[in-house]
Amino acid sequence: QVQLVESGGGVVQPGGSLRLSCAASGFTFSRHAMYWVRQAPGKGLEWLAVISSDGRQKYYADSVKGRFTVSRDNSKNTLYLQMNSLRPEDTAVSFCAREGRRGSFDSWGQGTLVIVSS
Amino acid sequence: QSALTQPPSASGSPGQSVTISCTGTSSDVGGYDFVSWYQQYPGKAPKLMISEVNNRPSGVPDRFSGSKSGNTASLTVSGLQAEDEADYYCSSYAGNNNYVFGTGTKVTVL
Predict the structure, then answer these.
(1) Do residue A103 and residue B1 have CB atoms under 8 angstroms apart?
(2) Phi, psi of A89 (to 5 degrees)
(3) Hey, which of A12, A83, A99, B3 has its CA 20 to 30 A from B9?
(4) CB contact under 8 A, B36 and A95
(5) Phi, psi of B83 (to 5 degrees)
């Protein structure tokens, strides 16, 4: 079965960096675009980034453009999110998700919590 | 990109139906048939319930259905059950490889 497992979250000071990972299994990772979505405590979902199946195309939400970088290693079945210049408002649970039918996210990881605080 | 607008809450008694709206613009909901719906229990990951406006993935009960008219999409849960009590989010493709989620609706089973 499809499994996505995020890791790398933690507590970081404002201005700091973190790299999140998402280990995929149970499907052919290299055939699917992948997404990052986050959810601030008690708030709704926010789409962050998408990367094409071959890693060549990457797109970002305006709120993270220029600060976050999505990448993938298809040989390791792993998705990444490099988060730089972190702000307190970046505090959230970050989920990785697999592309399903057009415009949908059909499988999700359990999420990893990022706390930006001094 | 502004979040799609959903009512904060909706409720119904067991066996009844509840419909949740998701209002966007002609640049997102109205412009594409790529509206999805997600169910989320507290502390858990979202689960895809509907894709492409009205497509139900395998394993999702047929009590869940979706529709769209103009800039507003809707999710209807028929024959409401206790296990349907959760938060529900819509999402839409918004062009230029951007995606937007709704504000979320908490469904309560009375």
Answers:
(1) no
(2) -75, -5
(3) A99
(4) no
(5) -70, -10
Question: Which parts of chain B are beta strand (E)?
Answer: 9-12, 18-23, 35-40, 47-50, 64-69, 72-77, 86-93, 99-101, 105-109
pLDDT tens digit sequence for A15-34: 999 999 999 999 999 999 99
Task: Give the position of tokens 């894709």.
Answer: B51
Check residue B4 and report its DSSP letter. Answer: B
Which stretches of chain A sit within 8 Å of chain B by CB?
35, 37, 44-47, 50, 57, 59, 61-62, 95, 100-111
- The secondary structure element, H or E, covering residue A116 is strand A112-116
Distance from CA of residue A92 to its chain's centroid? Answer: 11
Cross-strand partners of B73: B22, B68
Q: Which of B48, B55, B102 sits opposite A105 (nearest CB)?
A: B48
Across residues B20-40, what is the average pLDDT?
A: 97
Q: Is the dihedral of CA B49, A64, A102, B91 positive or negative?
A: positive
Q: Tell me the pLDDT band of B1, cut-offs 50, 70 and 90.
A: confident
Mean pLDDT value of segment B81-92? 98
